[in-house]
Each structure stands twice: as C-alpha cells, then as structure tokens.
Design a protein that fits this description.
- By secondary structure, the protein is an alpha/beta fold.
- Helix 12 (289-299) runs parallel beside helix 13 (324-334) and helix 16 (399-412) packs across helix 22.
- The protein folds into two domains: 50-395, Glycoside hydrolase, family 3, N-terminal domain (TIM Barrel), CATH 3.20.20; 413-601, 3-Layer(aba) Sandwich (Rossmann fold), CATH 3.40.50.
- Helices cover 35% and strands 10% of the residues.
- Bound molecules: 2-acetamido-2-deoxy-beta-D-glucopyranose (3 copies).
- One 2-acetamido-2-deoxy-beta-D-glucopyranose binds at residues 317, 322-323, 326.
C-alpha cells in the first residue's frame, strides 16, 4: 500500500468537503431536490451571453465533433434525414456516438448536458432494424387513438434504445390538398381526427400527471422521449399544396382547421413545437411574432420550447440565406427558442451576439428562450442521467413492436371496392386454390412499402436496407401450402391469360418521396402501374392494393378492377396487408381523406360546398373474418 502523508489526506478531505458543501449550497441547479423553476433560474443567472446563445443552437451530428459542443456551448445535436454514425449503425453505435457528444458538453464550465433529436416519424425510421410503422395517413384510417398511443410508446422505446431523447413527431398538419408532398405525414384533412391522433404524444412522452397546469412540458423518464408538434401553423394549407409556400386563409379558418392540433398537443404536455417553413397570408411563419409569441406563448401559455425547422432561418428569404442577419433578427424576435442551424452555427453566434450587444434584441428575449430549453432539460432528468447505457438496446425492432405495427397495418387498410356489380365480392380471397399471380412494382419492395423518411430522407428501394415482411412474402406466408404463388412484376396480357391463375393480386403505387420531391400536380399512378393494372385486371379477376401517400387518380381503372384497397404506406410489416386480404381479419379502415375523381377538383375536402368525390371522407367497406363466415 502506497504511503500517503496523513496531513495531505487531511488537507484533501478538508478542502474537498468544504468545496462540496459550498457547491451544494450554491449550485442549486445541480440539486435534484430543488424545484425545476429554482434550478432553471439558478442556472440562467450563472450563464454568460455566449453560453446562452450556444444553448439556443441545435447542430447536425456531422458538425459536432472536435470539441465543438464544448467550444461553443451548443445546446443540442441532431440527425438530418438519413444521417447516421456508420452504415447500418447498431443501437450501440448510436449510443457510443451520443455519449461522446455528452462528454464534450459536460466538460463545459457549467456542464449543461445536450440532448439529441431525430425524425422518428413512423417508428425510429432512420435506424437499421427498427420497426417501421404506417405513415400517419394510414394511422388516420384506423380511427384508433389508443392504437396510435401504443405506437408512440413503442417508438419512444426504440428511439431510447439508441440513446436518443427527442423525436420530431407528431406532425399535426391538416393536409388540405393531396398534391402536397408531405400529405402522408398528415393524419387527415379533418382537424378533429388530427386532434384525436395527438394521443400519440401520451405514448411518446408518457401520461401527464393529474392537475398538471396546461402548457407545461412533460416527459416521464428514461423510456420516453420529447415529442414535437409540427409544423406551426398552416403547413397543410398552402396554395395547390406547394411545399413551403403560402397559406391564404382568414384567421377563423386558421383557428378552426390548422390550430386545433396544437391546442390538444399542448393539453397533452407536448414539450416542443416546430415552426413551419410556410407563410400565412404572405408572412413567413419563422418571423410570425403574433402567432408564436402572441398566440402560442401568451394566449395558449405554452411553456415548452419552440424550435425552428431545419435551416429555417435561411429559408426566410428567396434565394436562401440572402439576408442572414435580418432573417436571424426576425426569427429570434418572433419567439423561436431553439434553432436548427446544422452547419453555419458560427455565423449565428456572431450575428446574434452583435444583435444583443446593440440592444436590437433584448436580453429578456434570450432569457425566455434559454429558460424554456433548460426547463425541458430539467424536466426530462438529463442533468441526473446524461449518459445513455445499453440497457434498452434490445427494444429495437422487437417482435412485440412488429406485431403492433402489423395490427396497425391491417386496421389502416381501406377497402374501396369489393366485387363487380354483377359478381359476388372477391375479398376475402380463398387461400386454397391451385395457382395465383402476384404482380406490381410494390409487391416485393420493402423500401417502397415504407415510403419517404425511411432510412434516407427520400426513402429507399429494395429489401436490403430494412428488416420486415414484403407484401409478396406475406401472401406466400398466408396461402395454403399447396397454392402456387407466381410473382411477375409487370406481366404482359398473354402471360396472365395463359397460366391458369385463379386470381391475381396487383400491388402498385407511388415511389418514395419526401417534402418538395413529393409535390405532384397530376397524382397519376406512376408508370408502369396503370399498364400492370390493365394487363392483369383485363384478363383475370384481380384485387389491387394501392401503395401511396395519398389518394391517386384511379377513376379510369376502377371499372376494370374487381377489388381495390387503399394500402397507404404500411411500413415494414406487410403481413398486415395479407391479414385482411385473406380474411384472417376483417377490413375496418375508413378513408382519412376524400378520394377525388380528378385533380381539377382539388382542393376538395369534406364539408366543402361542391363535394363530388369518387369515395367520400370516411368511406370504407367492411368484411367479416373468414372464420365468422364459415361459422354462419
Ligand atoms: C434583404 O434586405 C434588404 C433590406 O432589408 C431588402 O431590401 C432586400 O429586399 C432583402 N432581400 C431579400 C432577398 O429578401
Ligand atoms: C406527374 O407529376 C410528377 C411530379 O411532378 C412527374 O414526375 C410525372 O412525370 C407526372 N406524370 C405525368 C403523367 O404527367
Ligand atoms: C421553398 C422551396 O424549397 N421550394 C421548393 C418547392 O419545390 C419546388 C419544386 O418541386 C422547388 O423548385 C422549390 O425550391
């Protein structure tokens, strides 16, 4: 045993105990016994302007190495769409990366921890082996908020499995025009349905305590994540559904259609609200003081933080980044608290520092922003538990979560047609027949059935980057072992006629897209989908499943098809599609959107004076499970 002079030990004990006593007494923000309000004010009072401005930044992971978090006192880190630490990163890879960031943040003078944000919008969709749930439009078709809450809880566990604490979900957009490339991120054109679906927040963040004052952010511990109601406000109402453009409506319509989702999100304790790229009557939402500070904070008493969208400040001008300082001033003054500035954080710091020093932006505005960010950080317990461990890694893509996704898939299927007028219903399909045909670009493609915001921002094609069950495999799993299943992606009519198929299942639809890339003014089924439908349904009995983020033009083919199913973007668990096609479960889904006849009718929403849809909002045929039919 090494000999240490006694007086040194004594000195060490004395000085450190004194230090500890002083620290306990002085550093209230470090004491979990103090109330969050006391901790927030104590910490805020210790912070320099530099430290406060850093707290207001959320930067991209690729820019966050080399002690950047320490040097600039950064408040948060994020992944842009598809940004991952290594290809096919494991939960452990994610956690190791996050903990490096956390070490860097904790080594600052005040040791304020960072949290990490990601677009987990239909499950933990960027992460390899995660369960991919149906996109929101499909969840809207289930009409089942309790199911959606369970999906929120499962998503929270999968996100936490990778150490991440913040999901940019739910999107509470009320899409009023399906030509918008984000329409699938919207639960419905009906604000009431969107409101009901905000129960997902209770799954993501946890059930709020009784008597919690309205407006306080809430998150219930280590298995939950911060949620984010987005995109405030009116994102789904832009002219012609054009991305990031202008929503031209009066205040009553704004409040009746686009605002209710925020009221219910706030009442469910949502911790954050993200601002929309779009404008309301020509004013960019990223500069809208009346709606952000005036309405959201002052009228609704929202106490969480308001976050910008990705490079939201840059997009205030066209061309982007044309007037950086003006845009920054307008955005901070409007009441946005945290800024997604993935790359150019140094400019942000320089410009905002000058604006505050010159008293263009008052310190009270900076304090409001930082107070809100710190409030959320204390609420989530990250000061006490800054590091992620591996204890939740096995939640990623569990069997239970895949079963839950499968349940959601089958409840989201909407049966639009079942049998031609002169024939009996085609569905449920018989499992035991000699031979069936499966056709279409979307039958054997996991990437396509998941849609955008899956692995990559714009989604992927094929079966290699995802784990799950294709619709083709689901069909093979479900039919009788003696039934031969032939898959031909785009067969010609002779092939269809000459092979003795009992019937065909055609799976066609849209290729994955996100945001701008999904804006589409014609909404036709992309080629060769129409050809596949015509060749197959022109020759034999067929059931067509449409995989799409919105209603498409199908009127020209409806007469030809024996059965039509709106399958939306079901995600990784294709088995849910086969569950209803073959009658293991009945169809129960209802249209969350109006199915138009032709694009010239758009926008056309339920309740409109001139309402002439192909299938109205709420439409959906039902079937009985096969056992019920047999037992009759
Ligand atoms: C930039 O700001 C100046 C002065 O405020 C203004 O005249 C100009 O139109 C702005 N440019 C853009 C692209 O918004
Ligand atoms: C429909 O619009 C999309 C997106 O702009 C385009 O790629 C496609 O070629 C158009 N299809 C037709 C048939 O015009
Ligand atoms: C603001 C913005 O990004 N607008 C984009 C919308 O989409 C079109 C084309 O789809 C782009 O050209 C715009 O830049």
């Amino acid at each position: 045993m090494a000999k240490i002079p006694f007086f040194l030990v004594g000195f060490w004990l004395l000085s450190n105990c004194a230090g500890l006593l002083e620290a306990e007494d002085m550093m209230k923000y470090k004491n979990p016994k103090e109330s969050n309000d006391v901790r927030v004010e104590d910490l805020l009072n210790r912070m320099t302007l530099e430290e406060k401005i850093g707290q207001m930044l959320q930067i991209e992971r690729k820019c966050a190495s080399d002690n950047v978090l320490n040097k600039y006192f950064i408040g948060s880190v994020m992944s842009e769409g598809g940004s991952i630490p290594v290809p096919k990163a494991s939960a452990e890879n994610w956690i190791d990366m996050l903990n490096e960031f956390q070490k860097d943040a904790l080594s600052t003078r005040l040791g304020i921890p960072v949290f990490y944000g990601i677009d987990a919008v239909h499950g933990h969709n960027t992460v390899y082996k995660a369960t991919i749930f149906p996109h929101n439009i499909g969840l809207g078709a289930t009409r089942d908020p309790e199911l959606v809450k369970r999906i929120g809880a499962a998503t929270a566990l999968e996100v936490r499995a990778t150490g991440i604490q913040y999901a940019y979900a739910p999107c509470v957009a009320v899409c009023r025009d399906p030509r918008w490339g984000r329409c699938y991120e919207s639960y419905s054109e009906d604000p009431k349905l969107v409101e009901a679906m905000t129960d997902i927040i209770l799954g993501l963040q946890g059930d709020i305590p009784d008597n919690m004052p309205n407006g306080l952010p809430f998150i219930a511990g280590k298995e939950k994540v911060l949620a984010c109601a987005k995109h405030y406000v009116g994102d789904g109402g832009t002219i012609d559904g054009i991305n990031e453009s202008n929503t031209v409506i009066d205040i009553n319509e704004l409040m009746e259609i686009h605002m209710p989702g925020y009221l219910s999100s706030i009442s469910k304790g949502v911790a954050t609200v993200m601002v929309s790229y779009s404008s309301w009557n020509g004013v960019k939402m990223h500069t809208h003081h009346d709606l952000i500070t005036g309405f959201l904070k002052n009228t609704l008493h929202f106490q969480g933080f308001v976050i910008s969208d990705f490079e939201g400040i840059d997009r205030i001008t066209t061309p982007h980044r044309a007037n950086c300082t003006d845009s920054l001033q307008a955005a901070v003054s409007s009441g946005i608290d945290m800024f997604m500035v993935p790359k150019f954080y140094k400019n942000f710091i320089e410009d905002l520092t000058i604006l505050v020093k010159n008293e263009v932006i008052p310190m009270s505005r900076i304090d409001d922003a930082v107070r809100r960010i710190l409030r959320v950080k204390f609420m989530m317990g990250i000061f006490e538990n800054p590091f992620a461990d591996y204890s939740l890694v096995n939640y990623l893509g569990t069997k239970e979560h895949r079963e839950l996704a499968r349940e959601a898939v089958r409840k989201s299927m909407v049966l639009l047609k079942n049998g031609k007028s002169d024939k009996k219903p085609l569905l449920p399909l018989p499992k035991k027949v000699p031979k069936i045909l499966v056709a279409g670009s979307h039958a054997n493609n996991l990437g396509y059935q998941c849609g955008g915001w899956t692995i990559e921002w714009q989604g992927v094609s094929g079966n290699n980057l995802l784990e799950g069950t294709t619709i083709l495999d689901a069909i093979k799993n479900t039919v009788d072992s003696e039934t031969i299943v032939i898959y031909e992606e785009n067969p010609d009519i002779e092939f269809v006629k000459s092979n003795g198929f009992s019937y065909a299942i055609v799976v066609v639809g849209e290729k994955p897209y996100a945001e701008t890339h999904g804006d589409n003014m014609n909404l036709t089924i992309p080629s060769p989908g129409p050809e596949t439908i015509t060749n197959v349904c022109g020759a034999i009995e067929c059931a067509v499943v449409i995989i799409s983020g919105r209603p498409l033009v199908i009127q020209p083919y409806v007469g030809l098809m024996d059965a039509v199913v709106a399958g939306w973007l079901p995600g990784s668990e294709g088995q849910g599609v086969a569950d209803v096609l073959f009658g293991d479960y009945g169809f129960t889904g209802k249209l969350p959107r109006t199915w138009f006849k032709s694009v010239v009718q758009l926008p056309m929403n339920v309740g409109d004076a001139h309402y002439d849809p192909l299938f109205p909002f709420g439409f959906g045929l039902t079937t009985e499970p096969t056992e019920a039919i047999y037992s009759q």
